[in-house]
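As agreed, record copied across for absentees:
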Amino acid sequence: MYKKIIKAIKNPQLAILVILGEKCSRIIPDAQFLNLKYKSIVKKKLNLKEPKSFNEKIQWLKLYDRKPEYTELVDKYEVRKYIAEKIGEGYLIPLLGVYDTFDEIDFNSLPSQFVLKPNHTSGDVYICRDKSKIDYVELKKEVTMWLKRRYYWVHREWPYKNIKPRIVCEKYMVDESGSDLKDYKVFCFNGEPKMIQVDYNRFVDHKRNLYDPEWNYISASIHYPTDPRIKIKKPKRLEDILELAKVLARDYPHVRVDFYSINDQVYFGEMTFYHGSGYEKFIPESLGLDLGELIKLPSKR
């Protein structure tokens, strides 16, 4: 805590972020909270009256586009029902279990490899490649911490506010690399796929390449560096991925629909309504403006 205070004194913007990360900040209304956080991270004033950039419109959507079904769609367990109804169970990664507490997990019944993740946060995951090497004491601490998190308060992403925290266990999957599982993140605007983001080397040297729907490389980056020398092969079922994304994104002004491509099979990953929570840096900046133009804001809810 002492080190945090020293850093905050030296950097006022960091001080604001530290305060916004504390429980006491929950008394701050959403709009004021987002204004403060946006200014501290993006280093620009947030324009909610006439938002233009992608990041600004993401903040607007957090505040004013609050369809009740969003809560189900961002819940990594409940969304499985929606996916089964919309495109079919065959696109779901096999489920090994769902638990309310760590102590409910029967590790003896799980295979040697599996994946654990909370249903109600973003970015938290435990990938088990060898069950015999699990440190159960440390894993219990991590999983218990996940269950205590209230992700809504971190970025004021409204759909996460009323999710019942659970732990989801899914089958461990890898793609043709034998060691990695690339995400194909399809940015959709009013149901139309416009850009695909591919994350790779996530746990070593995280990079991100961008492509248009015809799989032409886009010389730009979002938050993580891009590498034009890395030639990511066009997924065998790219057309199917795009069509599936259209079906799932049809009713929403903007949503990112993620898929995995493993040999000839496509699997659903997740639906994300607030990419990077609206704080990630676009290089060049014009890309953020171009994507912002594609978001047609609905009436306020």
User: Anything to note?
Assistant: The mean pLDDT is 94.
